[in-house]
Amino acid sequence: MTQGVVFRGRDEVIGFIREGFDAAATRDEPEVRNAFSTTEWGVYEYTSRGTVNRNRATAFAKRLSGGRPIITGVVARIVGLVMGGKTFEIPVCFIYHVDPDGLIDQVNEYVGKRGIPESL
């Protein structure tokens, strides 16, 4: 995801998350590294692992292109060819805020430098 992209509303957030998960053909159970919360704030850190599906990676790259023809037409296909079948391991951390009604009203997600599994 491009830095600073803002998703507003439940449908936009869920749509982006589903498309991101769909880029993987298989996704292993996340390895939870840390979880901490108070009544107002929480932190959840985990490692995401799986295998990339070429067709799904191409479609996801097109989604991120913002409709720019060069990315949609060429680069997205290259992304799919290069990434298809590769395994991934990505450390992820998100921080969330809970409003007075007990609902999450803010989420900031941070993705660390990816580890390179032996299969890459």
Structure explained in plain terms:
By secondary structure, the protein is α+β, with helices and mostly antiparallel strands. 33% of the residues lie in helices and 36% in strands. It is built from 3 helices and 5 strands. The chain has helices spanning 9-22, 54-64, 69-83; strands at residues 24-27, 31-37, 41-52, 87-98, 104-111. Strands 1, 2, 3, 4 and 5 form a 5-stranded antiparallel beta sheet that branches. β2 (31-37) and β3 (41-52) form a beta hairpin. α2 (54-64) runs antiparallel to α3 (69-83). The longest helix has 15 residues, at 69-83. It is globular and about 45 Å long. The two termini are 22 Å apart. The model has no long low-confidence stretch (mean pLDDT 78).
Short key terms for the protein model shown above:
single chain
Rg, rounded, reads 16 Å
The residue fraction in helices comes out at 25-40%
Distance between the termini: 22 Å
How much of the polypeptide forms β-strand, as a percent range?
Answer: 35-45%
Low-confidence stretches: none
How many helices in DSSP terms? 3
Structural class: alpha+beta
Largest sheet: 5 strands, antiparallel
